[in-house]
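Quick one - inputs below.
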Amino acid sequence: MDLKMSHHIEEQSWKQLTSHLAEWVADSHKHTTDGHVASYIPELANAPSDVLGICIMDAGGLTVVAGDSDFRFTLQSISKVFTLIMALMDRGEAIVFSKVGMEPTGDDFNSMLKLELVEPGIPFNPLINAGAIAISSLIAGKDSEEQVARILQFFREVAHNPTLEINQAVFQSESDTAHRNRSLAYFLKDNGVLDSEVDDVLRTYFSHCSIEVNCTDLARMALVLAHNGVDPIRNQRLIPRRFVQIAKTFMFTCGMYNASGEFAMNVGIPAKSGVSGSILSMVPGQYGIGVVSPPLNRKGNSTAGVHLLGKLSQEFDWSLF
Amino acid sequence: MDLKMSHHIEEQSWKQLTSHLAEWVADSHKHTTDGHVASYIPELANAPSDVLGICIMDAGGLTVVAGDSDFRFTLQSISKVFTLIMALMDRGEAIVFSKVGMEPTGDDFNSMLKLELVEPGIPFNPLINAGAIAISSLIAGKDSEEQVARILQFFREVAHNPTLEINQAVFQSESDTAHRNRSLAYFLKDNGVLDSEVDDVLRTYFSHCSIEVNCTDLARMALVLAHNGVDPIRNQRLIPRRFVQIAKTFMFTCGMYNASGEFAMNVGIPAKSGVSGSILSMVPGQYGIGVVSPPLNRKGNSTAGVHLLGKLSQEFDWSLF
Amino acid sequence: MDLKMSHHIEEQSWKQLTSHLAEWVADSHKHTTDGHVASYIPELANAPSDVLGICIMDAGGLTVVAGDSDFRFTLQSISKVFTLIMALMDRGEAIVFSKVGMEPTGDDFNSMLKLELVEPGIPFNPLINAGAIAISSLIAGKDSEEQVARILQFFREVAHNPTLEINQAVFQSESDTAHRNRSLAYFLKDNGVLDSEVDDVLRTYFSHCSIEVNCTDLARMALVLAHNGVDPIRNQRLIPRRFVQIAKTFMFTCGMYNASGEFAMNVGIPAKSGVSGSILSMVPGQYGIGVVSPPLNRKGNSTAGVHLLGKLSQEFDWSLF
Amino acid sequence: MDLKMSHHIEEQSWKQLTSHLAEWVADSHKHTTDGHVASYIPELANAPSDVLGICIMDAGGLTVVAGDSDFRFTLQSISKVFTLIMALMDRGEAIVFSKVGMEPTGDDFNSMLKLELVEPGIPFNPLINAGAIAISSLIAGKDSEEQVARILQFFREVAHNPTLEINQAVFQSESDTAHRNRSLAYFLKDNGVLDSEVDDVLRTYFSHCSIEVNCTDLARMALVLAHNGVDPIRNQRLIPRRFVQIAKTFMFTCGMYNASGEFAMNVGIPAKSGVSGSILSMVPGQYGIGVVSPPLNRKGNSTAGVHLLGKLSQEFDWSLF
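Output:
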């Protein structure tokens, strides 16, 4: 098709999106009762269970929001996508993939089996917890403080929002309670995967998990990935294309915990979820998307969020295949 | 871009492809020494180790071939993609996904761990051996003979080649030696996944693994998937689009055994490999691709075949992300 | 203590045993409602659930019986103790322990994990199903028929009962339904543990599992083990002492499935249970014991049988430690 | 036999023991070259590799020593037997066995598989590292310092040696390097098995592992177990018989890591080994035995120590079965 027709279709889509989004959000909102707010981190357990918000942003900076789009939450596992990108920028592919593998796994996100059984000591991929902890240790910086400062700076740049901060209450709550992550980190240390000290790595890890955003921040961050590393609004390259390619591939094959395959089949776009009930997703070449709804299904993904993205994908035929 | 420009670029690509393919094949041919012909099925062990052939076919029926493109081989695991499609056409999504899961797994293709550990008794996805055996039992037909007849008919239709036949020597060799598959099948039977008898299911399974093709057949079959179920040359729909979407998603997330993630990251297109050293791949919306080179790397994929597809993907920027 | 005193105590014990056994059996009988008759083999599911019988036999041939001591049942896993002994007599320690390990395992009796995870392909010990199947293949005999004939002859000799026969209905039922065992056997075959064909090995295996006995037979077989391989009644050596030592060690460390440790701690004598609800046990140097009560606890051992043995061990301080 | 004859035999045995022990030690000494001194704790790696010492003590206090019997070493895993006994004395069976299981396991001593796979979160038994860490947390005491003081007091009492102390260099070395144990402890904490803090539990755990003894201390401690909790030399009960029974059962079924089954079959007496190359063993009702030789075989037990105990067991027919 020619460019004009393509633009025309995009305009039509956008129009349809803006007119119907609130209604689709209302429809998906019913699913907020079908799940449970994450409780293993006490601070997360305080999140309201009847929230559903979304923001979709296009390359020109147009945004459409619906539902509780002002709701603020922490990035949690979504941050892993961007620390992976930082580690790649700081160290290069060779070093990063000597510490984590490239293979998706249908196992639980915090299982230790994968570390002991199949490829002893090396996390299967950078998006499972063990892999993300290994990645945190690769971020440049003379100590955890400097790593966290660099991470915060990078995330602010990608989100084009200099006010992003770490939610200290969540950070503290994670540090105090995440025995499983501490267990994983010592296991990695024992296997020679971590060069720095466990306490330092975890401080960095819990810090980037605790960065607070809203749906608009998510959408802007996603938009940069959707446009292969360029912020299309400022027309500024923030990330080398290759590293975005890597990040999007991992999001597609293992971004939604052990429901990644199901999501790929039924929604069909790259996405990464966090236990705060958030999902960062995108339509490659077009939109950045941020969604949040705290109640999680039994696979750890936002129930209403997944439903809403499924609806949108179906309406606009977003599936990559 | 407009249609004319798009066509122009496609023509340029095709021209470049036809002029350079032989040279790239020659370059990848060196990698045939870097691997071993599958030996666990005696008949497969007889395959020559210095073969590399490829066929690429476009929507208009143009084909470019290079290397040992006449070499004949059996489909092996590549057949799993099309029996999955048949099972979906015969039974629908609900029944199929009550017997197999949707999640990729980085484990060995014939591991039993996934059956016992994480989701007892249900294979993780339809492309690992256990899943494909479960799928074989879902093909319509009053007995194994009728199932095999229907499969052969369907494969001939998709390949547009009425001469496809089962290689009886390979079939016999597989039947005689595949103790691991027999073990998997009885495990599935014990878990209530198989309705029919193990011997019947395995006869069907070994039969479709033993269908003999060449690269051109593979390319034609791939072309139908690349065009969402329509054979673009005959302009005839052979498979509902949704089932092709499912098949391509599984190919992308788990089509290359436990190197699927690596292939997705480095080549970036849907593909399925077989232990005969064959790979069926495609550029969605454009080409169907068939490659064969028997020596396998330690993950079970054709060493030279993977190298050649990587080279092509890089040259023409085929990666989906 | 001197011999006279020792004999006096033994006489006192025997007297107490004969006067109280019926009462203890009545007390343990309540536990027959606390468990379920094995149902995975249809023929076993027909066993009555309110049966409890016991026979205790001393070196002089004195026997005391109580409860349903005439009840007939098949040996099931108890037979593994005696096929292990035969394999040792036929092949020697070196060959036997090249095919099975020596280590107890707390896993489920029919788990495949142990085969794949820790010591690939080699069953952990001769009393788990996989190990016992490997042992069956080591019994001397030109074919399964001859193996079974030799087994039956040996079991008749040890039980001093020439009328022992295979229960054909149980044998048939096991052969028809034991998909898990068939899966294990093909897994072993794939790993080179079995020299003969799977069907032949399983015919032998199911045959010795289906030998029918009563509590008196069990007690006599146990008596031979209690006296280190000599039938003390006939004063005749039937088994070399070393092989009885091996058998008793395995019974102590892994004779009661994944409750072996608990049984060792709470009852403290060598024992082997079968899914027919039978238990062969002994007081080393003194008694042979046979117990049967079909309802099994969730670890696969006879609920009332374990209770009764626990009571007796406590009363007479039978624990080895 | 009567008492006189029995005493006579014991005297004969003792005479033979005293005359031949040095020669048997010399023979086993060759095996010190067949293994490696534990290196994962730096301080242990300093141990000399050509040491072999033994002490055997009888109920009357007679001792026979041979080889490097003055060599001093830390208890390491041998301490687990006595902290188990303390936990049983402090809390009772019910509480102890709600935190650890009773089943032997042939897996590696520090594997996490058993925690995640079969009985999630509960260590399989009190002698694997995870189980022993759980046991450490059950020792009475208002803090780790008090726990350690009580442990030291108890160990001194059982060894009848008020000079026993913690080797601070080994303690420090263990604390600094045992990432795997820290990983296990956090895993247990995450599963609710530990009530106290991980750092406190590990301080207690590393402390009792670092108590320094010689072979004579080991023999005296073993003698108390051999005599069911009574120190026969002082004729004083130190431990209730039931708890010694429990301890000896675990030593028999899982005291020698994943060679426990092999040791039970070939040596046949209760024993517990430590990575310092030490083994505490006993002939129930008779002797306490302490052996040390630092080089370990691949299962983690002292190569020469196991050989020497095997020789003694064979000479004197010590096997329980």
